[in-house]
Amino acid sequence: MSDSNSISNNAPEQPYNHANEQPTTARPLVEVNNPYASLRGTSGNKKLPAFDEALVNKYNRSGPRYTSYPTALEFTPIPDGIEAQILEKREARAPLSLYFHIPFCRHLCYYCACNKIISKKNSDSGDYLQYLISEIKHKRRLLANPNNGDKPLVKQLHLGGGTPTFLGDEELVQLWQFLQTQFEFLPESEGDYSIEIDPRELGEQTLQTLRGLGFNRISLGVQDLDEAVQIAVNRVHSAEMIANILAEARALGFHSINIDLIYGLPHQTPATLDKTVQRIIEMSPDRLSVFNYAHLPERFKAQRQIKDEDLPSASAKIDMLGNTIDTLTAAGYQFIGIDHFAKPDDELAVAQREGKLHRNFQGYTIMGDCDLLGFGVSAISQITNANSRYILQNHTDLQVYQDTIDRAVNDNPNVLPAVKYIKTSVKDRLREYVIMNLLCHDYIDFRDVNQKFGIDAITYFIAEIQQLGEMQADKLVDMDAAGIRIRPKGRLLARNVAMVFDEYLEKKHKNRFSKVI
Length: 517
Description:
Elements: H1 53-59, E1 76-77, H2 82-88, E2 96-102, E3 104-105, E4 117-118, H3 123-140, E5 153-161, H4 169-182, E6 184-185, E7 192-197, H5 206-213, E8 217-223, H6 227-233, H7 239-252, E9 256-263, H8 270-283, E10 287-292, H9 314-330, E11 334-337, E12 340-342, H10 347-353, E13 358-360, E14 363-365, E15 371-375, E16 380-385, E17 388-394, H11 398-410, E18 418-423, H12 426-441, E19 443-445, H13 446-453, H14 457-460, H15 462-467, H16 469-473, E20 477-479, E21 483-486, H17 494-499, H18 505-508
Parallel strand pairs: 2-5, 2-15, 3-4, 5-6, 5-7, 7-8, 8-9, 9-10
Antiparallel strand pairs: 1-18, 10-12, 11-12, 13-14, 16-17, 17-18, 19-21, 20-21
Helix pairs in contact: 3-4, 3-11, 4-5, 8-9
């Protein structure tokens, strides 16, 4: 294997603080105080200024959501043996976040762009669970135990899909109990253990089962409560069903409940969506995600069931978003960023005010110190080793994924399921740090960047600073010798600010993403 593909634990020496030096992630001895804490005042001071449709239209271009940097478009085929090296050389003391992708759904939702398989066969879940367990065993043997001899520590776990509750209650118990034999979990009062739920696919005892295992957070895919919209996207359920699930979850002691909504769906209008939002506010979830529907039928076959003429206009979509933000913030929700809202006492909102919020492939997270280890078809892992971060993805085809696991179990124990990866450079890590702080905290502090990466940030990013001049003139950002701050007026367009620091976007992927709004 060539040296260029090998993994090293030796971090480079810290360079002098000269602008022409390459950046480094080695930390200096003296750390500045957290410059990202409480920059927007107290929890009661989070309302956005009046929605400016003209500015939104001006800057509404295609761009990434930045759940990683570089984005997934930079994946390349992974050389043989590299995934094993990455896992073996992972920092054993670093905590883990585990992600499990359950691809099965019993019904096809026409808007969906997720990796999914429509199936009515209950046996599919049992077969798939065995592949998950085999993958866990296979990866776990490569992970070093911490110095104290304990099993690797898990602080966060998430089941996504697809429909994770396609797994039966007994299968959920089997998976959880097996994981306890492989990893050390924080007590549920300290850890973050969550699952996505399709309200239509929830057994009578499933919430009770999940809470008994230690799950403490759930996310409900509601999307809209208007019946005409639900029929148009083939996802019908009543508001009463949602309210009953929330009531049961609260009674069982789940710490946080999230509801997903989508704007831009067929037959939606600003008035009908506002009615949905008002009804959801009455249910009082702890968090909300309000996603923009990106209609890309040429890429996603299910979306071909949606007629173009049934979709709201671009102007109506902007009204929907503006109204939703105004309504939720007036109801006391903190606008976290992009499409996320949380009650001021939710740990996501608290982490943002304390300057400790992060982003990964699951969106905003409070567990930024974790390596992400993904299991299942299409699952993504994100692992840090010395000065490099590795992003890996399993195959997106179920049969290929299962064949790979079979080969690992029966023929070649050196086979691992990742087929694509990104090895980030130190320059990538620098730009990731800037982009993520802009999206999480609306700010990047030059002194902090200088100390963490051994550069002069103003000199290093002079071209980017010049590009932000028009946004500064439009009062979307403020820039001075201390740093770059996204103003309240610019928070909806934070992704546009982040895009300025993306080295790959203009060169390779200008039109590969959905629009920001």
